[in-house]
Amino acid sequence: MKLDTPSLDDIDVSGRRVLMRVDFNVPTDDSGAITDDTRIRAALPTVREILAGGGKPVLMCHFGRPKGEVVPDLKVGRIGERLGELLGTPVLKLDASIGEAVQEAVASAPAGTTVLLENVRFHGGETRGDEALAAEYAKLGDVFVGDAFGASHRDHASVSGVARLLPSVAGRLLEREIQAFGRVLEDPQRPLVAVLGGAKVSDKLTVVDNLLDRVDSLLVGGGMAYTFLKAQGVNIGSSLVQDDQLDLCRTALAKAAEKGVDLCLPTDHVVADRFAADATTEVTQVEIPEGRMALDIGPATREAFAAKLAEARTVVWNGPMGVFEMEAFRAGTEAVARALESTSGYTVVGGGDSVAALHLLDLTESVSHISTGGGASLELLEGKTLPGIAALALK
Fold first, then answer.
1. H or E segment at 293?
2. pLDDT tens readout for residues 267-311
3. Which of 350, 353, 269, 355 lies closest to 304, judged by CA?
């Protein structure tokens, strides 16, 4: 995807209300305290640039899944407090996201103030992409900035709906995401290597199909690998498998052979007698005994994958190699992360579990780009057009 989307460089924000969609859907603990403010921090460069340019940022966000109801625990007050702490400038948190009172509060907010609207998903029309709701949002801005990559694959009222009504551009976060995936999908330095993992092969087969037209090598680990192995006639014991996907896996294997893509599957495994942190484990070769389930790639596979990544000039990784949350089955995911740390190529990591693994291993600084949107990044890798990006245009 080429970067032909307009950006902040293309508009003058001075003296204007800048309606901005952000992704502040942050994790919280049982007491409601924010446990990770990464998504708030990710929006700060765009907000600060708007403030510095004399604009008034008016932020729209969602939090949790209220399903069109006002849920007190999902109000965004705590997010506004944290935003104010990080910005170091005034934040005005409103109790609604549309209506005359909101319009008046936005109009009267002092210069230098950032306005945070209430959770947009308190409106049932938000996730339906309701045009009337989008028009209500549009009354709050002179221009629109899309900066919520994590929601950009949703055709929602506050994401793409309002973008169709106002002059609209990409914020700096969204701009970085577009550039990163453009480097992978449109004009990569080669060899281009993709690493896919995770539990269900059904979640990734469209990604596999699209990537086989682009990559030089595709490394497959995690639970999804065992449907591929069974499709090849390998005994996978009691490992995770999706039997209804076997024919599609065979089709993918045939396409890889036709395209000359090196599709690498595990040749050995860390297996266990049960799914538990204290399970009895052993390393087996490609055939897995009955009563044993593979929960990580084995040492030979780790070495082979690392060798492929060492040669790569561009890498995209989505999905862990095993049950990395349990230390006994973390080595495969760590091997991929360490290999990315060592490569001199351009590296992009997406997907919640892969990013969580980088945080766990303290390797977030070792990759070129960490994507802020798991679902959105997968859809880009599938070759889809994201409505939240496609709708951005100067009018």
1. strand 293-297
2. 999 999 999 999 999 999 999 999 999 999 999 999 999 999 999
3. 269
Question: Is residue 39 among the annotated active site residues?
Answer: yes
Delimiting residues of CATH 3.40.50.1260 domain(s) in the chain: 8-173, 188-381
CA angle, corner 373, sides to 376 and 44, nearest 5? Answer: 130
**For this structure, is 54 an active site residue?**
no
Hey, what amino acid is at 314? T
Amino acid at 133: L
Given a contact cutoff of 8 angstroms between Cβ atoms, the answer to whether 348 and 180 are in contact is yes
Return the CATH class of domain 188-381. Answer: alpha beta
Residues 6+ apart with CB under 8 A from 242: 200, 201, 202, 227
The first and second tokens of residue 126, run together, are: 């938000």
- What CATH architecture does domain 8-173 belong to? 3-Layer(aba) Sandwich (3.40)
**Given 16, 78, 200, 384, which residue is catalytic?**
200
Distances, alpha carbon 272 to alpha carbons 242, 291, 297, 328, in Å: 19, 9, 12, 10
- Residue of 17, 39, 75, 93 marked active site: 39
Q: Which tens digits make up the pLDDT trace of 134-188?
A: 999 999 999 999 999 999 999 999 999 999 999 999 999 999 999 999 999 998 9
Catalytic residue among 53, 68, 125, 375: 375
Instruction: Give the CA distances from residue 380 to residues 55, 187, 270, 339, 352, in Å, rounded to whole numbers and listed in that order.
Output: 31, 15, 32, 24, 15
Amino acid at 57: P
> Is 200 noted as a catalytic residue in this protein?
yes
Q: pLDDT tens digits, residue range 235-264?
A: 999 999 999 999 999 999 999 999 999 999
pLDDT at 14 over 50: yes
Give the span between the Cα atoms of 132 and 292, in whole angstroms. 55
Q: What is the mean pLDDT of the chain?
A: 95
What per-residue string of b and e applies to 371-381 under the rule 16 or more CB within 10 Å gives b? Answer: bbbbbbbbbbb
* DSSP line for 155-166: --IIIIIGGGTS
Distance CA 226, CA 63 (A): 36
Cα separation, 15 vs 142, in Å, equals 10
In 37-105, DSSP assigns E strands to: 56-60, 91-93
> Residue 63 phi/psi, 5° resolution?
-150, 115
- 141 assigned to active site: no
